[in-house]
């Protein structure tokens, strides 16, 4: 089985993904930071839906994020727009989808961003 299809992320990959997520979604007002709300299994499931190239790129960025101090990372992520707008849009799309999705297994429902903003979808 190839690495891109592996169900589990390493501890360092997970820490890098969380740090990168916090640089994109640091928390505003009542909304929590990315790492405060996301169960680790949800990140793993989300990476399964990525094509192999996108997953490799994301994990590479997560690895870089571990080596970069947080203040510098907060400046570097928006600067990606200068290099590749498409990459930044995909990165934000991945993180905001994971952030606002809820599989009903949240450890702390009071930190669910969708509920905080009043979004409660009903399926009939």
Provide a quick synopsis of the model:
The protein is mostly helical. The chain contains seven helices and no strands.
Which tags fit this structure?
124 residues, mainly alpha, 7 helices
SSE arrangement, N to C: HHHHHHH
Tell me the β content: under 5%
The gross shape turns out to be globular
Count of domains: 1
Put simply, the count of helices is 7
Average pLDDT score: 80
- Find the count of extended strands (DSSP E, 2+ residues): 0
Oligomer: single chain
Largest sheet: none
Q: Helix/strand/pairing class, anyone?
A: mainly alpha
CA radius of gyration? 15 Å
What is the helix fraction of residues, given as a range? 55-70%
Query: What is the terminal-to-terminal distance?
Result: 39 Å
Unreliable spans are 1-6
Give structural notes.
By secondary structure, this protein is mainly α. It has one domain (8-115). It contains 7 helices and no strands. The radius of gyration is 15 Å and the shape is globular. The termini are far apart.
Record the SSE blueprint.
Elements: H1 11-24, H2 34-37, H3 40-48, H4 52-67, H5 70-83, H6 85-100, H7 113-116
